[in-house]
Automatic annotation (TrEMBL):
Xref: InterPro entries: TIR_dom, Toll_tir_struct_dom_sf
Pfam families xref list: TIR
Domain of life: Eukaryota
UniProt name for this protein: TIR domain-containing protein
Gene3D superfamilies cross-referenced by the UniProt entry: Toll/interleukin-1 receptor homology (TIR) domain
Positions of the TIR domain: 1-69
GO biological process: signal transduction
Length: 71
């Protein structure tokens, strides 16, 4: 997302087994990302994890492809 902001690069999100509306839009409160973000909060600085959460929220606002596992 930094490259998009600073250099105008294109971002093509692919949402694999997650919902961009629910899981990615609010990753720190619930959904598939909560446990992982809680673990990262213990290992990394607040600023670093907050930047990841901000990036996930920004990505959820971009049209992309939602892929469900149909195996």
């Amino acid at each position: 997302m930094n490259c998009r902001k600073e250099n105008g690069h294109r971002v093509f999100p692919v949402f694999y087994k997650v919902s961009p509306d629910e899981d990615v839009a609010d990753p720190s409160s619930s959904g598939v990302y909560k446990a992982d973000l809680d673990r990262h909060k213990r290992r990394h600085s607040y600023e670093r994890v907050a930047s990841w959460i901000h990036a996930l929220r920004s990505i959820s606002q971009i049209s992309g492809w939602v892929i469900h596992d149909h195996t």
